[in-house]
Write a structure and sequence with these properties.
191 residues, alpha+beta, Rossmann fold, 3-stranded antiparallel beta sheet, two-stranded antiparallel ribbon, flat
C-alpha cells in the first residue's frame, strides 16, 4: 500500500515536472522520437495511462534527463527505505556518480588515468572507461565494531575476510547494489 502510494507520487511528479507536449501540426510527448511512429504511440500511451495534463512549455532534453534521474532516484530511495528491514545497512543513492567510486570498479579510474597519460594506449583502447550510470544504489562498508555488534563472530585481527568490500578495513568505497540506465532515454531523444 505504501509502495503503491509512493509510485503514484512518483508518476505525478513525472507528469508535473517533465512531460510536455511538443510539435506544431503533429503533436507528440517531449520524450518521444518525433519521426518514429512506434515511439510516439508508446509515449502517448504513457501520457494517457498516467493521465498527464497537456502542458506545452518547452524543457530542454538535458533538463528532462536530469529531472528524470533525480525523480527516479528519489522514488527508489523512499521505497528502499521502507524495505530497510529486508536489506539493512547504510545505503547511498546517487545520480551520475562515476562507477569507479565503487569498490568493484576502482580499477577503471586507474585505467582511465593511464589512458589519458599515454596516447598509444588511448588510440589502442579508446578513452571512455569510467561509466557514469544514471542511478546507483550502493551499500557503505561496515566497521569492525559493527561486524561483531551482536556477538563476537570473527577475530578481526586474524587473516579472515581480508578481501570483502563489506568491511571498511578493506575498502572505503561502497559496493554497488544496483546500477540502472533508463529504459526511456529521456535525455537523448532522437528529434
Amino acid at each position: 500500500m505504501i509502495i503503491a502510494k509512493l509510485r503514484r507520487e512518483y508518476q505525478k511528479r513525472i507528469c508535473r515536472e517533465i512531460v510536455r507536449i511538443s510539435g506544431d501540426s503533429a503533436e507528440y510527448p517531449n520524450f518521444a522520437d518525433k519521426v518514429n511512429k512506434a515511439s510516439k504511440a508508446i509515449a502517448w500511451g504513457i501520457v494517457n495511462r498516467l493521465d498527464c495534463p497537456a502542458k506545452r512549455e518547452t524543457i530542454s532534453p538535458q533538463t528532462v534527463g536530469r529531472l528524470f534521474e533525480e525523480i527516479t532516484k528519489d522514488f527508489l530511495e523512499k521505497a528502499f527505505q521502507r524495505l530497510h528491514h529486508l536489506r539493512p545497512g547504510d545505503w547511498t543513492y546517487s545520480t551520475r556518480l562515476p562507477i569507479s567510486s565503487f569498490e568493484q570498479y576502482e580499477h577503471l579510474a586507474h585505467l582511465e588515468k593511464m589512458v589519458k597519460e599515454s596516447s598509444e594506449l588511448a588510440s589502442a583502447l579508446g578513452t571512455d572507461y569510467v561509466i557514469k550510470p544514471d542511478i546507483v544504489i550502493g551499500r557503505q562498508p561496515v566497521s569492525e565494531k559493527e561486524v561483531n555488534r551482536q556477538e563476537p563472530l570473527v577475530d578481526l585481527t586474524q587473516p579472515i575476510a581480508m578481501l570483502t568490500p563489506l568491511r571498511s578495513a578493506n575498502s572505503e568505497n561502497p559496493s554497488p547494489s544496483s546500477t540502472r540506465q533508463h529504459l526511456l532515454q529521456m535525455d537523448n531523444p532522437q528529434r
